[in-house]
């Protein structure tokens, strides 16, 4: 159980924080969105356009990463994937990078172009409220980022691992 899995909404900085935390710990870093894009040969938004939100979740649920001493940044929708989350809980510590809806709304200009899984008629606020419950359910540790600079978030993540 020597991996760190960063979960949270799109635009919380899972990849940015993850890369730096990995460097500081001497760990590897894996962004599962990039793994999926490489495996499928398409951008996330193209996969979602082709197979729809439910089809994309099937792809994400099967993107099990086998790793040691690795910081893993899965996509925000991974919390809908019970198999994937069970796997992550078994192989590491799940850290929820939490921010307010207001922060997400400011950071996330165009959810669809980022490959965010939104169902027809679902707003970003709906998505946020739905996912927060799941992030809290799976988190071993929660790090609130609101009002923090990147370096402060990284320090809080590192401190939470002890």
Describe the structure.
α1 crosses α7 and α2 packs across α3. The protein starts with a strand and ends with a helix. It has helices at residues 14-25, 32-40, 44-61, 82-91, 101-107, 124-138, 150-160; strands spanning 3-7, 28-31, 70-73, 92-98, 141-144. The protein has seven helices and five strands; from the N terminus they run βαβααβαβααβα. The protein is α/β, with parallel strands linked by helices.
List the topology elements.
Layout: E1 3-7, H1 14-25, E2 28-31, H2 32-40, H3 44-61, E3 70-73, H4 82-91, E4 92-98, H5 101-107, H6 124-138, E5 141-144, H7 150-160
Parallel strand pairs: 1-3, 1-4, 2-3, 4-5
Helix pairs in contact: 1-7, 2-3
Number of contiguous helices: 7
Strands side by side in the biggest sheet: 2-3-1-4-5
Mean pLDDT: 89
Task: Identify low-pLDDT runs.
Answer: none
Question: How many DSSP E strands?
Answer: 5
Please write the string of helix (H) and strand (E) elements: EHEHHEHEHHEH
Estimate percent helicity: 40-55%
Specify Rg, calculated over alpha carbons: 15 Å
Q: Which overall shape is indicated by the principal axes computed on the Cα atoms?
A: globular
Indicate the structural class.
Answer: alpha/beta
Q: Could you give the distance between the termini?
A: 13 Å
Summarize the biggest pleated sheet.
Answer: 5 strands, parallel
What kind of assembly state do the chains in view correspond to?
single chain
Strand content: 5-15%
């Amino acid at each position: 159980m020597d991996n760190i899995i960063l979960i949270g909404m799109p635009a919380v900085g899972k990849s940015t924080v993850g890369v730096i935390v990995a460097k500081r710990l001497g760990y590897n870093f894996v962004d599962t969105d990039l793994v999926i894009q490489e495996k499928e040969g398409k951008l996330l938004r193209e996969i979602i356009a082709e197979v729809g939100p439910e089809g994309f979740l099937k792809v994400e649920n099967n993107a099990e990463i086998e790793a040691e001493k690795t910081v893993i940044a899965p996509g925000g929708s991974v919390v809908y994937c019970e198999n994937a989350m069970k796997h992550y809980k078994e192989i590491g510590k799940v850290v929820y990078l939490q921010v307010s809806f207001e922060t997400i709304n400011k950071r996330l200009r165009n959810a669809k172009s980022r490959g965010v899984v939104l169902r027809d008629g679902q707003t970003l606020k709906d998505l946020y409220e739905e996912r927060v419950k799941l992030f809290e359910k799976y988190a071993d540790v929660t790090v609130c980022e609101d009002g923090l600079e990147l370096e402060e978030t990284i320090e809080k993540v590192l401190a939470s691992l002890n």
